[in-house]
Design goal:
Layout lengths: L22 H4 L13 H4 L9 H5 L3 E3 H6 L17 H11 L14 E3 L1 H14 L4 E8 L7 E11 L2 E5 L5 H7 L13 E3 H9 L8 E3 L4 E2 L1 H15 L8 E2 L2 H8 L4 H14 L6 H10 L8 E4 L7 E4 L4
Parallel strand pairs: 1-2, 4-7
Antiparallel strand pairs: 3-4, 3-6, 4-5, 7-8, 9-10, 10-11
Helix pairs in contact: 8-9, 8-11, 9-10, 9-11
Length: 317
Amino acid sequence: MLGGAPGKERATIRYAVPAGGDSKVLDSQHTPWSDPQAHGLRLRELPANAGALPDALENFVIHHAIARSLGFGVPPAAEPDRDLRFVSRLLVEVVSRDPRPLTEHRALANYLYGTCHDFALLAASALREHGIPARLRVGAASYFRAGRWEDHWVCEYRVGEDWMVLDAQLGPRARAGMGISFDVTGVPLSGWRSAASIWRGIRAGEVDPALCGVSFAGISGAWFIAAAVLRDAAALAGIECLPWDYWGPGRSICATREVAEETAREIDALAAALDPAPASREEAVAVLDRFPWARPTSTILSFPEGRAGAELMLIPA
């Protein structure tokens, strides 16, 4: 069985799902990361309609890499934004910079400078707050750079028995600037694929791993997708990490930027259980029960985009 670094014992996170409940109700419940805590009134300023969320979020959130590419840069005080990890902290930060309703457009200096993870988490949190089943997904999008699958987190929300892919980062200015013509509340498979789907494509020779990763950070390869499969398994089970968090076999994958064949076979089996995705959070927890080595540990290794790695508690005491 795969595990953490040699010589170190790390307890795994057992994020419990109440037994016997309606899975649709459970999927609409907050996780520790999406819970607004004392800031629920501010969160409820955001629309309950998935179609309106990207437009609303674009009023106060921008991807830090987009801000740099457009020449705006990132204010020094906003550099830590992408490590805030919890919706409650994101809300505290944005309201401290501008106390007006979240639906009001901010000056760029008062924006949150996050990542696709933060757009997806805020969207899922807003939908859950209104009782709508929602979850984070980890995968890759083809619409940021032609010919590449760029690491990208999205929010899925349930419509009837189906899960729809919402790209909450694609507000009106982003859609216009990128020439997006598809419905961002139902991103097609040609535009976004889960990490498990991409991994299986790599293993089948359908997807070139050199064209998968984070191009602005110079990251690519099968190793990164393998680690993303672990993050997606965790997110589906309600353990919503950051894009640069590593645990279990992800630690050695990150250290070597290689996937040993034994590990690859383990990832193969996990990916098969995730593609197609579990129908509910409850089913996703059962997947982690089948593959306990994939469950996040209480202590993780986090590499915030090129900065020095640090051992962190996934849920601070």
